[in-house]
Prior knowledge:
There is one protein chain. The protein is an alpha/beta fold. The protein has eight helices and five strands, in the order E-H-E-H-H-E-H-H-E-H-H-E-H. It has helices spanning 16-29, 44-54, 62-86, 97-107, 112-123, 139-145, 158-174, 187-200, and strands spanning 4-9, 34-38, 90-94, 130-135, 178-182. The longest helix is centred in the middle third of the chain and has 25 residues, at 62-86. The radius of gyration is 16 Å and the shape is globular. The two termini are 14 Å apart.
Amino acid sequence: xxxxxxxxxxxxxxxxxxxxxxxxxxxxxxxxxxxxxxxxxxxxxxxxxxxxxxxxxxxxxxxxxxxxxxxxxxxxxxxxxxxxxxxxxxxxxxxxxxxxxxxxxxxxxxxxxxxxxxxxxxxxxxxxxxxxxxxxxxxxxxxxxxxxxxxxxxxxxxxxxxxxxxxxxxxxxxxxxxxxxxxxxxxxxxxxxxxxxxxxxxxxx
Length: 205
Ligand SMILES: Nc1ncnc2c1ncn2[C@@H]1O[C@H](COP(=O)(O)OP(=O)(O)O)[C@@H](O)[C@H]1O
Ligand SMILES: [Mg+2]
């Protein structure tokens, strides 16, 4: 495909949206055609699934949770991401397949083989050109989120968050074209690192 697919991963409040916005603005100013999008979401159907899966009052079984995310992913990939990549755009997507491995795999304990099979089906085997995994110390979860609305997954406890953080580390280490970004630092510093990684992986060529 002509475009480039960049995925921002990491726990809630690790600064993915902040950095994705900064990168999108930077690239747009440089004359690149950019699509900034997020999971679960991206189009009407997937945004509706997002509301179901993240609503705090819902009790969702782990397998139902996985399928809801995969349904949203299938819709988003086929209707939004692939057409944009075929158009030659740089697609910046907040969360993708690695989130299911971290949350539903490491977090909820679903068999990773099941998750990988569903990930491959939902994405039509599309793989990111680069996955940036934002990892921060757990203390910032509270500090950075004091005034934010918490969705169903953000209300999980510290034990769950630690499991996922460990998961993200292991996943980043074994995934092709994935790098860990130290998200404890200041916004501007992290942005510089993001640009350096993009250049290093030839995403801006
Ligand atoms: N590097 C940073 N240092 C301090 N606060 C930050 C940093 N990055 C983001 N924030 C703040 O933390 C909160 C969560 O950031 P956000 O980008 O929404 O994270 P995510 O999309 O990963 O959930 C926001 O209030 C944001 O302004
Ligand atoms: Mg976000």
